[in-house]
Amino acid sequence: MEGQHTIHSFDEELRNLTNHIGGMGGYAERMVEQAVSALVSADTELAKKVIEDDALLDQKEREIGEDAVFIIAKRQPMASDLREILGAIRISGDLERVGDLGKNIAKRVTAISEARQPVRLFRGITALSDLALAQLKEVLDAYASRSAEKLGFVRDRDEEIDAMYTSLFRELLTYMMEDPRNITACTHLIFCAKNIERIGDHATNIAETVYHIITGNTMPPERPKEDKSHRIVAPVPGAGG
Prior knowledge:
Blueprint: H1 8-41, H2 44-75, H3 79-107, H4 109-113, H5 119-145, H6 154-178, H7 183-215
Helix pairs in contact: 1-2, 1-3, 1-5, 2-3, 3-7, 5-6, 5-7, 6-7
């Protein structure tokens, strides 16, 4: 919000919308943290909790959407106020997707736990998750403080997440080739890693929305939008040079 309105209840409504986004963001972060923790420790009960919690995150998104529509209908906002409200709708949508990605990781815990993999592979998943969640937290902090300056790190961090995902993808592919018995578990781990990489993308989407809320402009320049895993080709056994 760029200033105080003559109708103080309008300011309160906008503050509540911001607070609800903050609460939803914290909830989405915990879901992903718990999903990765369940994955690493093969905790199927914790995974089940994450799956069940997704319904509450969906409800939070619906409530934010309903609140935003109510404010628009009641206040007929313009300019920065309208950006604020529409931005909250967009951010809640990205956070809902973050929760879905966490739920998808949790759904794979049982399949992966049936054949335990080397600790180093889980270290890679954990490091990727830590990076993506740190990005999400910093973006949400920038939203709460309305600080466009805090968003400068976003693209560098997004490239770092993509590079880490590509490296982990290569490692998992190599491990599958070494022993076909690893294929099922490693395939699930690749999907988990991709889900975490996508969380980084949603954090970047939120950063762009926050920048637009604050400045009214598009965040320049366009960011890289892809990892490099599609360029990795498994070597053909027996093929020599």
